[in-house]
């Protein structure tokens, strides 16, 4: 049975195509990648379920890629049962930020460890406490990607927690995201790819007739999977750096133990590398990572001053990588470098910490976001009825109605707090019931226009329809809540000749921001009757340049909706 490795990134067609070109393997097809993901997540789900049912029984715990991933997760068995659900909450960098910065026990200063650069202080002194106003750049460098997020500590709260009847006061930090999470497909696996390229180029120097049974592709994969992983994870450790310069030798599968080839660097069936050659494999990829980090720091420099640089992730646990980061971004730039105490688990634990905090206090630790674009909902503007002859009209229930306007729920650049619900009440005429239900659609529009020049109507500017929310309301439920006074209301004098009185009902649309999408809910009297979701991007904000919406048509639309 063949083992498929490093398929995390291949949900992205562009990266999958690059891998197909590199490996020339027909097995790397989109349907195969989705099958591998499903198999992997199914096994993971079964393991989690088994673990909860055994070890934890005593506690009574009962853009396209993301959508594809969400569907695969559900097909794998997650959210299969009534009380189970799937939520895509935080990005990797955001989760690492929550884990690393929530409590000073989760972090330690790299400066407190002897890295042979500058002076080292007492390593037992613990982490570096954070305070309100501190700005953290979190770099989560793992196997396949390096992700960066920038957050600001907006408050430090002391909360009482109880465990085994013992009271403990815990510091909880709340953050706002001031820089949208960004990522590049460079990580530990990129170093593996560089290593495999070197090994393959060396083995190709050997004349085929000189050896028997040498499968170059198989030998490269085996050498990377075994000996090189041990060398890679230890590279830069204090003990390793203090050893004298020596050659690192890896056995080449398929070669006789007596085989040697000087140009290929092979002696007695083993391929030799110097420490400098291994370092070059790291530096080749760190150059790309540091260029990415430098670009992000340059973009934020005029907005905020980064006080802490947080390292997490599998590659971030490398002592060599940490040393290079300190040399590049540490004391010389006045930034304190912190590393997660458990960098490889920072993302997983951060998700759990944020979820536990949400269950306890009904709010995420990441409190404020800024949206890159504006999103709104269509509504019928009653104030335009007097101008009906001049407005494009829509036909509803065989009646002429004013052109639909857009109420902008989320406006580009405005802060979005998770503690405050975003909602809009909408009035709609009652239509004929279908199988005992009133059904309708709400349409969500998006605009890339600046906040002061948002289109006021669906046919203006760059207004783009991005989502339809289907809602269904039991007609009996509606009848119980109808307001007789509203139902029997006399129409305005200027419209009595043109229409019969049409009863209306009122409902509310809510928006819930998440890490990678906006979730919409349609509620009637507190009951959810419809929902939808769209992908969304968050952005860096210049707090000194936030402007109020001064565009008259947009302001008029907001007033009309209310």
Automatic annotation (TrEMBL):
Bias type Low complexity, positions: 118-129
Disordered: region residues: 104-129
Species this protein is from: Elaphomyces granulatus
Record-given protein name: Uncharacterized protein
């Amino acid at each position: 049975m063949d083992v498929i490795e490093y398929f995390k990134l291949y949900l992205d067609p562009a990266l999958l195509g690059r891998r197909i070109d590199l490996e020339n393997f027909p097995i790397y097809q989109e349907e195969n990648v989705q099958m591998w993901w499903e198999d992997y997540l199914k096994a993971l789900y079964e393991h989690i379920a088994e673990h909860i049912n055994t070890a934890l029984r005593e506690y009574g715990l009962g853009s396209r890629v993301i959508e594809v991933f969400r569907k695969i997760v559900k097909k794998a068995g997650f959210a299969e049962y009534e009380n189970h659900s799937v939520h895509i909450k935080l990005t990797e960098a955001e989760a690492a930020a929550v884990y690393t910065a929530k409590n000073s026990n989760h972090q330690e200063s790299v400066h407190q460890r002897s890295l042979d650069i500058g002076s080292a202080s007492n390593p037992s002194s613990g982490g570096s406490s954070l305070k309100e106003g501190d700005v953290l750049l979190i770099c989560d460098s793992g196997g396949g990607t390096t992700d960066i997020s920038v957050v600001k500590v907006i408050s430090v709260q002391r909360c009482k927690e109880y465990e085994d009847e013992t009271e403990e006061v815990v510091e909880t930090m709340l953050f706002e995201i001031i820089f949208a999470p960004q990522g590049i497909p460079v990580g530990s696996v990129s170093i593996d790819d560089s290593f495999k390229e070197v090994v393959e180029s060396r083995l190709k120097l050997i004349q085929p007739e000189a050896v028997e049974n040498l499968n170059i592709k198989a030998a490269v994969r085996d050498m990377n999977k075994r000996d090189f992983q041990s060398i890679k994870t230890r590279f830069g450790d204090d003990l390793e750096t203090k050893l004298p310069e020596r050659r690192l030798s890896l056995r080449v599968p398929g070669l006789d133990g007596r085989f040697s080839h000087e140009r290929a660097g092979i002696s007695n069936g083993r391929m030799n590398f110097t420490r400098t050659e291994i370092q070059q494999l790291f530096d080749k990829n760190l150059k790309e990572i540091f260029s990415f980090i430098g670009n992000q720091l340059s973009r934020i420099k005029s907005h905020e001053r980064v006080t802490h640089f947080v390292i997490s992730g599998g590659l971030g646990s490398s002592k060599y990588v940490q040393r290079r980061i300190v040399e590049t971004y540490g004391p010389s730039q006045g930034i304190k470098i912190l590393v997660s105490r458990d960098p490889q688990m920072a993302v997983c634990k951060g998700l759990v910490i944020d979820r536990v905090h949400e269950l306890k206090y009904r709010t995420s630790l990441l409190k404020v976001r800024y949206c890159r674009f504006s999103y709104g909902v269509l509504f019928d503007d009653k104030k335009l009825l007097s101008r009906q002859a001049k407005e494009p009209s829509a036909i509803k229930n065989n009646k002429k109605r004013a052109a639909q306007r857009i109420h902008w729920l989320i406006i580009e650049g405005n802060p979005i707090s998770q503690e405050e619900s975003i909602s809009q009440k909408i009035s709609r005429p009652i239509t004929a019931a279908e199988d005992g239900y009133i059904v309708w659609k709400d349409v969500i529009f998006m605009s890339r226009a600046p906040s002061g020049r948002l289109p006021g109507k669906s046919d203006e500017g760059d207004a783009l329809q991005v989502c339809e929310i289907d809602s269904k309301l039991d007609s009996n439920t509606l009848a119980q809540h109808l307001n007789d006074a509203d139902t029997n209301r006399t129409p305005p004098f200027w419209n009595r000749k043109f229409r019969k009185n049409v009863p209306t009902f009122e409902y509310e649309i809510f928006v819930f921001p998440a890490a990678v999408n906006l979730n919409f809910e349609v509620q009637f009297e507190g009951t959810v009757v419809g929902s939808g979701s769209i992908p969304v991007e968050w952005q860096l904000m210049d707090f000194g340049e936030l402007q109020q919406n001064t565009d008259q048509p947009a302001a008029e639309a907001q007033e009309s909706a209310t």
